[in-house]
Structure formats: structure tokens, C-alpha cells
Amino acid sequence: MFVDFLYHLRGHGIRVTPTEWLALMEALARGHARASLGVFYHLARAMVVKRESLFDTYDRAFAEFFEGVDRQFDLTDELLSWLSDPQLPRELTEAEREQIPHMDLETLYEQFEKRLAEQKERHDGGRHWVGTGGVSPFGNGGSNPQGIRVGGSGGGRTAVKVAGDRRYRNLRSDIVLDTRQMGSALRRLRRLSSDDQAHELDLEKTIDQSARNGGEIEIVMGPPRRNRLRVLLLMDVGGSMDPHAALCEKLFSAAHASTHFKAFKHYYFHNCPYERLYSDMSQLKGRPTAEVLKEVDERWCVILVGDAYMHPYELTQRGGIINYGARNEETGLQWLQRLRQRCPASVWLNPESERVWGAPTIKTVRTVFPMFPLTLDGLTEAVDTLRGAKPNIATKEQPVDPMAAFRSL
Amino acid sequence: MRFSGTSTYITSPELRDIVNVAIDLQKPLLMKGEPGTGKTRLAEAIAEDLGLELLVWNIKSTTKARDGLYVYDTVARLNDARFGDGDVRNIRAYIKHGPLGRAFASDKRMIVLIDEIDKADLEFPNDLLHELDRMSFLVDETGETITARERPIVIITSNNEKELPDAFLRRCVFHFIDFPTPDFMRDIVHVHHPDVEKALLDEVLTRFFWIRDLPELRKRPSTSELVDWIAALRRAGISAERITAELPFRGVLLKRETDVELVKRAASRPRRPGF
Fold first, then answer.
1. Distance of CA A220 to the CA centre of its chain
2. Nearest CA to B91 among A217, A213, A216, A208?
3. CATH of domain B13-177
4. Regarding the domain delimited by A230-407, which CATH topology (the fold level of the hierarchy) does it fall under?
């Protein structure tokens, strides 16, 4: 049953490693579950689930696996008090293990109720009666791998019910929670320069060398540890983005608050960037895009945020720009390609659900930029892609495989 | 050696169990949770309850893994070499143990709190793997290996500013401190304000959880802010009724201007009672 639980968890996407599993087994062997499913729920979670974003998955897997196991029974107080003072389980020999009756749940319940009716006194370490530390399928602290827990845990709520509450749904990483989490994901972009040129004084080594030299100062140089991350954030504030405004604002404040960027610039656009990028949301103050592009180079990471959802004209036709009174001489797609060529390390974050990514304009944008959903998982993937993107690679209109960066990691 | 909580630090039964598992299996305990849920206080409570000495290692962005084990004071040695003080040939005199190093070298079992491990560089946790596994480390400068006689209890806290590496997570026992439920919060408040009037507390808790549940809130107030708020309200002698009407001293709870505005707007909207 326990190995089944391991594979059940793995089947749900919780990658429990053998080491973690063995640690859990050791904890069980040392009596930490106290033969209670409620305690076991927390114990197993602490030992094998190491991220709160997986708690909800764990809850569902747990509820599914243990559904029906801890049905409650009416018990006499006396029986419960024997059980609440458990004796340690004894080690079983192989032969004994063989003899433990295995039965299905229904038979188990039936027998349990029958035995409960017959039982008159306390039993510890036995193989038949309800008691503690034995191999009977009933009681607690015992070694019967099937068995029904009787007592031994506090509280009226059962573990399966607790797990069924799904209290950790909000911690799942495939939904986006707050600015702080976004900041945390962006922080992964931090990459210390691996510039091999040794042109910074290594104070510690200098002192060490000098001490070894008997006080004659000997300068030791080393490569600088300086963060050189430059980020350009371009955000769509078009009408179809209104439902995502709060989310985008969070991303913006996370990026803006990140102190680990060497440089950070942000501009707005409407549906697609053309000749001008805007520095305010109402799109009054702007700068020529060409000018902005001159200021950035392949050392910059570009993050575009938008639903990429527009009329195909806006992307592929000259003059397709949505704003009245403006006319673009070059198509939106050309501008996108130019941006990608200038800054190969660029990604597109889309707040729309991946279900609608089949829309024509979204598909087209995806041929230029790797696209990720604007969720915590998506952001993390995007950041990994940016980290993996190698500067100076020609990215001329080749189909972009968003997963490529992962495979190379 | 069992941890059962202290009178000034209330723990949930789950947390007590997890602490005991970590102690028994001799694995580091990684604690996460919203700021202000008492992650750091836990280590102090364990130390107090078990009567062990607590060594705190506060992590900063520049902290390196080796700092926790030992620091080789090259500056002192250089000075001594230049000015002829001390015995420069005795490297040992310039090696100072960090918190982990001291715990390893000690005869007594100690508790080491590695506080806010996520502040450090991404590689930091990985750099500690070997030492935490083996509970020993090599002092490069002297070639000495220091092995723990009594494996310390290691408590690690993280505020989730960075993801921790898988290899590191695998070795830890993990617990996420849930934000206290209103009932549990009542117990916590009673530890800090034993004689708070019920009417006031009811009102304060209702408002507090109402604020926390506002979906647009940027920074949700924490337990410690609640405790401070109650202290402020009581010192000013504010009655329960005025709390709902005016939300006095809201600056104790809300640290951002946008949040203050948000609460103001939300409070003026009609709402269901007790919500």
C-alpha cells in the first residue's frame, strides 16, 4: 500500500525521490505517524512535498488515495483510551507478514464491527483483537499494512476531509498571486557576469598572498562579480488587455521594484509595437521605437506583455495600426522581428489562457517570440528561457521553439 | 528530546510533530510562510523548550556558505605580519568559526538558525549540502576536518524570495506555516495581550481578517502587525464600536499608500455584516 502511495503521488506530478521516500519510511518506522492518518498526512507532506505550490496537488492525491479509509466508527470510551496509549509495534518476520490477513475494505469493515461487538478487554501486540501495536487489521500503532485506524489521533476531522478542503489552492504556482512572487521569479534572471577578464581587485586573495609574502603586498586580480542584467519591459495597454490590467500592474511593480537590474526601461504599446513606444498608459508621450532600439542591444532581455489578440491587419498590413491619425509605414510584424533581432533574449508573456493561443495573430506572434502564459509557472519558464538565450545568435525568422532553451539546460 | 511548545509561543500540533520528526531524523527543518507567522521565533521556542543554546546565522545577499563554517581573518593576519604582532605562523589563531562551525565544534548539542536563506546567492544552499549531510567541514587553511560530535538541530527559514534548489530541498523536512485561523489567532493574541476584552478582540479580528481578504491588497498585514495594532488601540483606550466606524491607527496595519486608499474605499462600500 505504501509503495502504491509513492507512485500515486508521482503520478500526480509530485516528484518524490527514493531518498525522500526512505526518509518518510524511517519516520514511520520510528512511530512518527502515531498510526493516525491525520498525523500521517502532515508527516508525509513534510517529508516528500517540498514546495507549498504542490500542496494542493498533494491534497488532491491524498484525498483520492485515502478516500474511505478512515470512516468513523462509534467506539466506547474505554476502547479509545486503550488505543490512545499505544505500545510500540513489534518487528514482523517475513513468515508473520505472510500470515497477516489481507482483505478488501468491505470485508474489513464487516469484520471490524463484528470484532468490536465481541471484544471485552484491552489488547496490545496481538493479531486478532482491536488494540495497539499488533498485526490485527484493527486498532492503531500496529503493523498491519491494510487495517483500520481506531483512535490514536486527535480532532473530529479526518485527514481525508482536511486534504479534501484544498486549502492550498491559492498557493498553486500555475496561478499568479502577488507582486512578491513575481519579483521572486524575476530575481532568477539575476546572472552574475561570467566575464573571464580578471580586472577587479580580489581583496581577500591579495591579503592572503601578502600575508604569505611576509607583508610584501602582492595584488591578486579576479573576474568581477557584477550583475549586468538589463531589462526592457513592453506592455500592451490595448482595450482587450483591460481584464488583465491588475495582473499586468503587479508584474510591472515587481519588475520596477527589482533592484538587481543594472538597467530597466519600460514602454507601453497598443496591441502591437510600431514606430512609436509610449512612456505613459494613455499613450500621449512617446518616443520613436527606432530610438529605443538604438539604446538596447543583445545584452538586454526584452519582456513583452500582451494578449497578441488583434485584427490580422494590425500585424501584417502597412497602415494597419489601430490608432486613428497614425499610419505605420512598416507592418507590426516587421517591428516585432526587428526587436527580436536586436535583442535575441526576448519573450512574450500572454495573460490569455493557453486555450486561445490558436488564434491567428497569437500564432503569428509566436513565430517571432517564445510565448509563455502570465502565470507564476509561465514567468519562471520565461525567465529560464531568457537565461538560456545566447546572445549573438541569428534569430532571423526561424520558427521559435519555446522549449528549446529548456532542452539545452 | 521532544519539543512541545512554550507558553509564549503557540504552535499548531502539526508543527510540533514536524519539529520532532526533524529532530529525530536529524534533518534540517525548512520553514516557510507569510512574513510575521513566527518562522524565526520557532527556533527560539525550540531552544527555550529543549534548553539548548541557539546560534543565529542571519543571511545577507553577500553571505557565502563558508562564512557559516569559518572565517579566515586575513586582514588581522596581514596586520600582524606587517607590524610584528602575534604569531603569524599560527594560522589557527586567525580562523574564527561561524554559527555552523561553532555548533559542529561544540561538545553540546546546539540549535542553528539559518535565517532567511533566500536572501543569499542562488548557489548558496547547494554550497551547504555537503556540510549539512555529513555535519563536518574541512578548514582549507589548516587541513583540519571538524566533525560534529552532537549533530546540531538546524532550522532554516525562507521568505520565498528565491526558489531553493531541488537537491537542497530533498534533504530538508519542509513545513509551511499556514496563516492562523481566526480561532488560532485569538490564542496568539492572548499570549501577547492576556487581559484583552472580548468585545474589542472580536471587533479587531473581524476587521483584520476582512482587510486581509481584500483581493487587491498589496501587502497583507501579519500577525505581528495585528498584535501591534491591538497594543495601540488599547493604549489609546479606543472602544470596540469605534474600531468598525473609524479603523483607528490603520497605519499600523497598512504600510502602503495604495492599500490605505483601497481599505478606505472598501470600508465605505455597503457590505454584509461580519464580512
1. 42
2. A208
3. 3.40.50.300
4. Rossmann fold (3.40.50)
Q: How far is A353 from chain B (nearest CA, A)?
A: 21
Does the beta carbon of B81 lie under 8 angstroms from any beta carbon of chain A?
yes
**Position of cell 470596540?**
B240
Of B30 and A54, the structure prediction assigns the larger pLDDT to B30
Cα atoms in the 13 Å half-sphere on the side-chain side of B185? 22
CA B27, CA B246: separation in Å to the nearest integer?
A: 49
Interface of B with A in 99-158 (CB under 8 A): 121-122
Task: Enter the DSSP assignment of A192.
Answer: B
| Coil vs helix vs strand at A296 | coil
C-alpha cell at B159: 521568505
Contact of A281 with chain B, judged by CB distance below 8 Å, is answered with: no
Closest by Cβ to B218, choosing from A27, A179, A380? A179
Dig out the grid coordinates for A15 from the structure.
516528484
Eight-state DSSP code of residue A283 = S
Rounded to whole angstroms, the Cα distance separating A283 from A146 reads 67
Q: For position A330, what pLDDT does the model report?
A: 81
A229, three cell numbers:
542584467
Question: What's the average model confidence in pLDDT over B39-65?
Answer: 91
In whole angstroms, give the CA distance from residue A332 to residue A326. Answer: 13
| Percent of chain A surpassing pLDDT 90 | 7
Contact A162, A41 (CB under 8 A): yes
Helix B198-212 × helix B182-192 angle, to 10°:
130
**Grid cell locating B136:** 563536518
- Give the Å distances, CA to CA, from B255 to A54, B260, B262, B263, B267: 30, 8, 12, 12, 17
Structure confidence by residue, pLDDT tens digits, B247-261:
888 888 888 888 888
Half-sphere exposure in the Cβ direction for A135 (13 Å, CA): 14
Q: Show me where the domains of chain A are located.
A: 2-171, 194-226, 230-407
Give the residue from A386, A284, A279, A275 showing the smallest Cα distance to A339: A275
Q: For residue A52, give how far its alpha carbon lies from the nearest alpha carbon of chain B (Å).
A: 7
User: Using CB atoms, which residue from B17, B82, B176 is nearest to A32?
Assistant: B17
